[in-house]
Amino acid sequence: MTTWVHVPQNSDFTIYNLPFGIFSADGKNPRAGMAIGEQIVDLSVLAKANLLAVEPRYFLQSTLNDFIALGKPITNKVRLEVQKLLMEEDSPLKSRPDAFMPQEKATMHLPVQIGDYTDFYSSLEHATNVGKMFRDPENALLPNWKHLPVGYHGRASSIVVSGTDIYRPKGQVLPKGAEVPVFKPSGRLDFELEMAFIVGKETQLGESIPVDKASNYIFGMVLFNDWSARDIQKWEYVPLGPFLGKSFASSISPWIVTLEALEPFKVSGPEQDPEVLPYLKIEGAHNYDIDLEVTLAPEQSDPQTICRSNFKYMYWNMAQQLAHHTINGCNVKVGDMMASGTISGKDNTAYGSLLELSWGGTKTIQLTNGQTRTFLEDNDTITLRGVAERDFIKVGFGEVSGKILPAKN
Amino acid sequence: MTTWVHVPQNSDFTIYNLPFGIFSADGKNPRAGMAIGEQIVDLSVLAKANLLAVEPRYFLQSTLNDFIALGKPITNKVRLEVQKLLMEEDSPLKSRPDAFMPQEKATMHLPVQIGDYTDFYSSLEHATNVGKMFRDPENALLPNWKHLPVGYHGRASSIVVSGTDIYRPKGQVLPKGAEVPVFKPSGRLDFELEMAFIVGKETQLGESIPVDKASNYIFGMVLFNDWSARDIQKWEYVPLGPFLGKSFASSISPWIVTLEALEPFKVSGPEQDPEVLPYLKIEGAHNYDIDLEVTLAPEQSDPQTICRSNFKYMYWNMAQQLAHHTINGCNVKVGDMMASGTISGKDNTAYGSLLELSWGGTKTIQLTNGQTRTFLEDNDTITLRGVAERDFIKVGFGEVSGKILPAKN
């Protein structure tokens, strides 16, 4: 497939991709768009010109929730309609410069209003690493881990779009050997390399999503950085789980890549042993081969790759996560976001957090500018990227980037 | 203060109370109202008649969020305007029967769209009881408990209004002595007696609410039943906290009692020792003396009181909860709900859950109909009530009630 729009060789936003997002010029009148090459297709302009199966009002909102709620038969149709318009020689869009805005001139917004946000913990390597460091190296995984996709509810209000600065959080930490906590800015600020999916179809209270129907309920995916303050987390998290160590901010990439665009990149996941309970059992390939990369850029220094991982490593897949989440009758809503948990690989260059890369702060990471890191310093910028490529088909996520500002007084 | 509206002796909804809620006739056109005696004052009718400081559109919505977001100077003014209209002899409402609907004819709805829901764990007696049962009787409280109000993020989508039936959840549980979990309907279904406050004023990411300003950010309170499946919870909750054991449903009372109506019932809380960090330190009386009661009604049997407790027992108060929640810069939004955690007293008749009342299922609770309980049976109805009374001033919460239906197939 080829488009008449210029798509640079290295672009994530090919004619195979066509992700949805919310954009504006200068923050005014946010509306729905689709990324192609270095451009944004303004879907409201296309709808007003009667080129799409959907009324303009669905694209003239500051979130995609109402559009997504129309359901996959409609949203997929719109994506294919735009694809056709971007491919055909006699496309009416060729004479409509008002239907395009260069990405470099646009402000990107959170693409959805997030109702509830759930964070899973589905990488075997990450859970094992954390268990070794925080608990018992001989019994790193807790007994439930291989029987269910462990997860917890996170804070939705503090999820922000790529480019938003992050203040270093303050909180209670327990100094080594002390019995009484002190109050201070976090000294062990970290990123977590994750991906998240966005729920596209609601369920009613009491209803469960069968594991083999789960993909019908997933609209698409984004990159997700689950910023974490390890010292705050360590002191607060027993017995009810992470709270302020995570809730100060999470960052997502602005473009939602549809599950349909990711279809060519399906692969089998790791073997699950012991066998899972029937409600979690699913045949076929349900992981996705998406190359992931994290760069760290100190102030006025070049970004440097500190991790290369892949979404295919996940032990629990998204279908299992969603089936598990709803097996108790918990309802889901359009716009709910469910993150994977840190995506670590086997190799120590594939660890998706500084906690693992610095092994709990015991190893320093050498940077090319001569500095070292164990955890994040003020003014460091972390950027996550994700790209799937196969047989000349390329579908990328763009990036999610965030800079650490000093703690507020 | 007296009103010309008939208020029965036992009514929670006196002229001192005037809580806000969302009601409808037959579920159609939900709108904002205020409870007085056995009536609902239709605030949209009053606004249309130019009797209130606010435009009708704020009362013609299915949630109170936009109204609450107007801020306390406005919302308090509206409450006092209605109070005056319900007291004065020559009130224009006396000739407006269309401004009233009997509560028995109304359907009550969720009063707010809940953005994020947080559940604290702020009763010393409850945390101690659970610690004794689940962990170590000699070290029941974990080291952080007296230094910070422990809390976790809960599921907002499954919060329902009083009267909604609750399906018994299914999930993974680990049979005693087994190493592998089984999938079944929960056998240890429980209620939790809690109260919750609703955030009335938003903050920005990076901002913290000072403990002595916290009451400006609290619009009002409701009764909260945090239904819990103890067997699911026990197997899943390490290391990231409660998830499916709680997320199948929580129930709230429909009327939001304002913090201003609760002002006469402020009392000092328990002494906090060790001393708390400065950001949690607050002088004066910040607990509330609210009598709480739980009844259990088996199918076709009378309700029976199984617990009497009081909100004043809380170790951590709401101002401290909100200050702690935001100390890391986590932003809050109008409509966020923050629950207290189970409110247990010292005496074993004041335990706010069946887990504690049956001491982990080891003691049976005798019912007057000859039956016994350790945990909830299908078709049991649990009702929580809360009333504050002092010097002839009475402010009640009404009730939150829910019936357990058998697990869905």
CATH fold naming of the largest domain in chain A: Fumarylacetoacetate hydrolase, domain 2
The CATH superfamily label of the largest domain in chain A reads Fumarylacetoacetase-like, C-terminal domain
**Which spans of chain A have pLDDT < 50 for at least 5 consecutive residues?**
none
Total domain units of chain A: 2
At CATH level 2, the architecture of the largest domain in chain A is: Alpha-Beta Complex
Structural class call of chain A reads alpha+beta
Shape assignment of chain A: globular
Helical content of chain A (DSSP H or I, runs of 4+): 10-25%
Report the biggest beta sheet of chain A as strand number plus sense, adding barrel if it closes: 8 strands, mixed
Q: What is Rg of chain A?
A: 21 Å
Mean pLDDT of chain A: 97
Oligomer: homodimer
Which two protein chains have the largest interface (Cβ within 8 Å of the partner's Cβ), and how many residues from each? A-B, 67 and 66 residues
Number of strands of chain A: 26
Summarize the structure.
Two copies of one chain form a homodimer. Chain A is an alpha+beta fold and 409 residues long.
